[in-house]
Write the structure tokens for this entry.
Amino acid sequence: MSILHRLSALPIRHKILLSIIGTSLIVVLLSTAVYLTVGWVGLKNKAVDEIETTANMFAQNVSAALSFGDVSAAGDLLLSLKALTELERACVYDKNAGGVLFASYTPAAKGLQCPKELAAVPEDLAGSLLHREKVFVGQDQLGTVVLQRSTDDLQGAMGLSVLVAVGMVLVSSLIAFLLTSFFRRLIEQPITQLVATTQRVSEESDFGLRAEKFANDEIGTLFDSFNGMLAQIQSRDLALSLAHDELKQQVTEVEEANAALNTTLKQLRETQEQLVNQEKMASLGGLVAGVAHEINTPIGVGVTAASTLHAATEDMSASYEAGRLTDSGLRKYVQTAIQSAGILLNNLNRAANLIHSFKQVAVDQTSSELRQFDLHNYLEEILLSLLPKLKKTNISVELNVPDNLLMQSFPGAFSQIITNLLMNSLVHAYPDTKEGTIRIDVDQEGEQIALHYRDDGVGMDRAALDKVFDPFFTTRRGDGGSGLGMHIVYNLVTQQLRGRIRMDSKPGEGVHVTLQIPQKLSMEEVA
Ligand SMILES: Nc1ncnc2c1ncn2[C@@H]1O[C@H](COP(=O)(O)OP(=O)(O)O)[C@@H](O)[C@H]1O
Ligand SMILES: [Mg+2]
């Protein structure tokens, strides 16, 4: 981890402490360094000045002794330098004698000697100040004076300064530390408080909490902003929870409405089923009425014939008992009897035939049995059962079906489909008891048969055609229409007969219903 990283990970109070103490330490250290340097340079300059002045004066004084070669005079002069406590050595060199030592003074305590020649005197010496001063008389140089002084006294003086400086550093650090602790509290306390509040807010999700402001500085502004933010969140939270409650309420309402709708839908389905069954029963009822009406005629004629026969026989019997039976009377009776019996036989046969075909259609309409049947014959039987309805109109039916077309299917469904289509034509297609023709054409197409049912009535518009298979769609509501007929036809074709149905029509052009139905259904298919 880099130093910067480590620093930024420190708590704020350490950062404050570090920055203030660091700054003050650097400032104190820098100023101390300047103070010490300036002090040292001053001391040294003073010492240099001193030794230069001394050397200069001594050179003037010693010039006479040098020019006369008076060593002892020079020695006396040298002794006058004794007062300089820091002097380590004072050496006088004679230039004319080739720079050899002329006279010297060396305090025993310092333990130093003068080199024998000027050339051997070092240029510079650590720990000491060395000064050379040339000795002149007029323009002539006679020799050189060398003075050497130790700098121990200067270092001693500097030591004290360093001590003072260290003291200053320590004292100022202490002050900085104390000041920092004081100011730190001013900054750190509010921030710590703010942090604690934010933690509580996030832990308890309580946006009603507020941070307590300390002062009107930037941190104070931060507190205000933070509190403002909390207030905003609180009001939004409230609005949100209100909206949530409302939504929940709405969902409950929708769910209740949904449940109610489902119940209604179920009831509607049940009602629809009931109505479909009623419609089926109604068509069966129509069949029964037709049967009754149709059979009424032959039976009625039969009854008349039988009662005629009965009356004629009674007459004949009475004449015979009375012995009045004549030849012509017997002949007349026999004629009447043959005629009546013929009528009776004819009409009973007709009734029996009618009952036979009605029975089959009626049984098929109520049961849904898969069986083999001849389509041509079966369609004829169905039409026969509908004859009573047709008779009252000017509408004829043409049947065009190949002979010996054997089907294996549900004849009951065929019967219901044809009945419904035909009844629709009678009820809807010819409103003014007009003349009309209904045609039923059947073609075999591979394993399918195509049944085309056409009438030439009023036809239907697009809107009606689109809805014709919908349950309860009728244009004659309140006039006996249930709107279930074509729905039942659709279901019978597509579900029971596994076929397809389409209806084409235009206003004024009659209708054309096309059924496409498998000729043979297997038991497995319908299971
Ligand atoms: N052959 C047709 N000619 C004209 N309109 C018809 C014919 N067949 C059916 N329709 C129309 O289709 C509607 C729906 O027929 P259907 O489902 O049998 O109901 P419903 O006969 O009870 O009205 C009828 O109301 C009628 O408007
Ligand atoms: Mg109908």
The CA atoms of residues 266 and 272 lie 10 Å apart. The mean pLDDT is 88.
